[in-house]
DNA sequence: CTGTTAGCGCCTTCAA
DNA sequence: TTGAAGGCGCTAACAG
């Protein structure tokens, strides 16, 4: 049978409470006593029972990751990072896919909170900016860290300066001679849509290029919206020479449509995206894009959360560095004939 | 405050135990009583506290998914399925990335088992066929369900007839006139490698084509091994007219290399893969491949496991149907000149 | 078919 | 610095 705290206490000749103090790193234990308890625990191979701990201590030693699966890769990287942080803190992780935009999604999260009582949540986009959800979490007094949250939607978490990243990439494309640069936007419910659009406009502005509304097409962060957007853009009388897809899926849709039309990328059309998904390396031509350190963002957001839970936290939003990945889908602007 | 089982019992005018029966799907509850309890629970937004449940029930109400992340998409689909099954059974899920092949990975799983005491494990390839791991799990008396396990490596779980699937796809390609069909294999540690290779050989055999050893290249289920394999194959004096990549990543590597050489797919070379990842739809030309119902496999494997845990289980390995996805990367064999 | 009683193993509170 | 008693919310075992 497994040893219980009682057994350890008996073996060490102290009370249960003293063993509990040792295991929870509470003060007020004499060094000598501590050592005796630790030795007894080792001998008995004692492991605290986490259910009992949670039940009595009103903490679950569990955090939950909420996501709306925009992209498997992204989520898996976030998960990896969050797991790494959890491991260090001896915390467990539960997952909660949330169908953002479906009626009752807030209640679904409430169910999770009621059942597992996670000590905190990590929110990924677009849930980070889901106002009804955030309001309810505050009412329920559930703390959370946000990944890529808009201003004021999270007190702690991790983010990236997407706007500056896009502006940087725009400068690269402008340097290649492009002036008619189009953008297929992200979905309206995502905070990233606004940042990336703003970066696009910043880039034009810095290059002294007048924005052309015909070159901004509504998209939704999907491959299909990339195809549809590319069709409209390439059918224009004066089509763009470069297209910025709001994420890699969108950009791949553009490449697909270009290939379908026999348009050579990058010789006749430059394309770039955002996210640096594995696919961006595996399409032909490989995609120029912006690398987002998702794994680190997950790890840091989780750490901020765990620190706050344990009271160690200075808190705050940590801004991580991005990185341009210039590959083969961007090239010099084609010569006019 | 949150409702407890006591509150629900009071509201429904029954005892705590009856509420417990309803929530645990135990028999011996009159239908009318069950409905009354369910209604009361809904009104009070009652959710059983999982810590208390585990403590009293001497079960963790938790299963763990072990994976070695061959592909994010695959794992995320499996996770979705497993979560769906868990939800129904009011079970929680913990994840465990395992670095298969790294020393100490078995101990890492033991750590998981000791700490969380999951009531069972779901194993994904290649861990399903990791003999040292399986042996240890049996020693520890931890039950598990396997996904795509080789014969005898799991008693319960879900699988797919990969061999027949590949043979089917081969028949499709043969019908297009191809006779020099190459295969870039999967990694040796994966059971899928053998099945897919066998299906390839079956396909040749059924078409009366003598296998050519030069047309079978060692790969490892990666994009890079697809590129490397394609290079060797396309440099042959008598190159193949069709290449089967052991998975979609490999096949995409082949397409990439073909594009880099200016070889038109499918006009000059046909390519097909296995898995039906999202990428297979998003490359140009879109990839002919075999669809694997990963989500269902996760759901069913988890359900088999949960049934066994609760004693409801007839058990066994459920074989799921595959589906050919013929897209644009396979076409008639090029005319000889 | 339904209810009662006694813990599950730990932490909290309060006393020493 | 240490300990004793009570209870966290639920289920098992047994009783009706």
TrEMBL record, chains A, B:
The record ties this protein, via SUPFAM superfamilies, to: lambda repressor-like DNA-binding domains, Periplasmic binding protein-like I
- Keyword RNA-binding among UniProt keywords: no
Q: Where are the transmembrane segments?
A: none
Q: Which CDD domains match?
A: HTH_LacI, PBP1_SalR
Question: Which keywords label this protein?
Answer: DNA-binding, Transcription, Transcription regulation
**Record-level Gene Ontology MF annotations:** DNA binding
* InterPro entries, alphabetized: HTH_LacI (IPR000843), LacI/GalR-like_sensor (IPR046335), Lambda_DNA-bd_dom_sf (IPR010982), Peripla_BP_I (IPR028082)
Residue span(s) of domain HTH lacI-type: 3-57
Q: Does the keyword Coiled coil apply?
A: no
Q: Which SMART domains match?
A: HTH_LACI
Q: What is this protein called?
A: LacI family DNA-binding transcriptional regulator
> What is the phylogenetic placement of the source species in the record?
Bacteria, Pseudomonadati, Pseudomonadota, Gammaproteobacteria, Lysobacterales
């Amino acid at each position: 049978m497994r040893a219980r705290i009682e057994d350890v206490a008996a073996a060490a000749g102290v009370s249960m409470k003293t063993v509990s103090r040792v295991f929870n790193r509470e003060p007020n234990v004499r060094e000598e006593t501590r050592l005796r308890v630790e030795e007894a625990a080792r001998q008995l191979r004692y492991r605290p029972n986490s259910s009992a701990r949670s039940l009595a201590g009103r903490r679950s030693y569990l955090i939950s990751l909420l996501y709306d699966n925009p992209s498997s890769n992204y989520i898996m990287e976030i998960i990896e990072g969050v797991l790494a942080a959890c491991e260090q803190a001896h915390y467990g992780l539960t997952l909660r896919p949330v169908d953002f935009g479906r009626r009752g999604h807030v209640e679904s999260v409430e169910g999770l909170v009621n059942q597992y009582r996670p000590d905190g949540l990590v929110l990924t986009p677009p849930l980070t900016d889901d106002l009804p959800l955030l309001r309810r979490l505050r009412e329920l007094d559930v703390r959370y860290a946000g990944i890529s949250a808009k201003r004021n939607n999270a007190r702690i978490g991790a983010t990236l300066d997407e706007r500056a990243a896009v502006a940087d990439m725009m400068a690269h494309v402008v340097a290649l001679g492009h002036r008619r640069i189009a953008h297929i936007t992200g979905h309206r419910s995502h905070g990233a849509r606004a940042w990336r659009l703003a970066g696009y406009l910043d880039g034009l502005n810095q290059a002294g290029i007048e924005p052309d509304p015909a070159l901004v097409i509504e998209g939704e962060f999907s491959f299909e919206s990339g195809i549809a957007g590319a069709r409209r853009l390439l059918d224009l009388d004066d089509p763009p020479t470069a297209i910025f897809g709001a994420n890699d899926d969108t950009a791949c849709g553009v490449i697909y449509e270009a290939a379908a039309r026999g348009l050579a990328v990058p010789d006749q059309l430059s394309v770039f995206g955002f996210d640096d998904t594995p696919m961006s390396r595996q399409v032909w031509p490989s995609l120029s894009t912006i690398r987002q350190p998702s794994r680190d963002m997950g790890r840091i957001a989780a750490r901020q959360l765990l620190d706050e839970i344990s009271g160690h936290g200075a808190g705050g939003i940590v801004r991580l560095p991005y990185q341009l990945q210039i590959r083969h889908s961007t090239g010099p602007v084609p010569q006019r004939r």
